[in-house]
Amino acid sequence: MNEETRQRLLNLVNSLEKETYHTKDFLDNGHTYEEIMELIKENILTQCDRGTYVLSDSTIPYDELALLQNHYPMGIYSNETALYLHGYSERAPLYYVETFPKGYNSPSLKERNVRIKRSVEPIYSLGQASILTPYGNTVIAYDLERTLCDILRDRTTDKQIIKEAYFHYMNEESRDLDKLLFYASKLHVTDKVKQYIEVLG
């Protein structure tokens, strides 16, 4: 790689001012995959995921939650993973739970640490919300009330996790029981939700 090309690459990296860079960023600006590899060899970029790079001297930690959703933007964090993002679980996920539209399929997802759930519209879009990861990056997850309904729908969710989440929620001044019951009716868990409200309310 000649010096002129190298300087153009460095100028591009500086001008984008991003935390993570993607192969498309370089290809769309007239560079080649081979030139990206040269930046890696020179220890200017570090590949942290497939098609994703960070500056080698970056102090920004690797954020798997943000990078995973960047690769699979149709995936919405749900169930135990959403509880974790909402601060309702201190247990760091052993795997991530994501909900995708029914019919969506990506073979490469099988290589990821993801438990896949699928849903049809309008349930898939119900309760989507932006939320920050522990590293401060924005991802899409289901909001708290939707999540509290989802964990009751999933027979694999640990009952202790459910109990702790509802106990926490019922002690929140910001709780929205009307929204919770609205979601419960849409997701057919009204009776289960009411049981927890009555016991813990």
Could you say which structural class the secondary elements and strand pairing correspond to?
alpha+beta
Secondary-structure element order, as H and E?
HEHHEEHEHEEEEHHHH
C-alpha Rg (nearest Å): 21 Å
Outline the biggest β-sheet.
3 strands, antiparallel
Summed up, the helix count is: 9
Which descriptor suits the 3D outline?
elongated
Number of strands: 8
- Assign a percent range to the helix content: 40-55%
What report would you give on this structure?
This protein has 201 residues and is α+β, with helices and mostly antiparallel strands. 43% of the residues lie in helices and 17% in strands. The protein has a 3-stranded antiparallel beta sheet. Strands 4-5-6 form a 3-stranded mixed beta sheet. It has a two-stranded antiparallel ribbon with strand order 7-8. A hairpin with a 2-residue loop joins strand 2 (45-49) and strand 3.
What is this structure's SSE topology?
Blueprint: H1 3-16, E1 21-22, H2 23-27, H3 33-41, E2 45-49, E3 52-55, H4 64-71, E4 76-77, H5 79-85, E5 96-101, E6 114-119, E7 128-132, E8 138-142, H6 144-153, H7 159-170, H8 177-186, H9 190-200
Parallel strand pairs: 5-6
Antiparallel strand pairs: 1-3, 2-3, 4-5, 7-8
Helix pairs in contact: 5-6, 6-8, 8-9
Task: Throw out a few tags for this protein.
single chain, 201 residues, alpha+beta, three-stranded mixed sheet, 9 helices
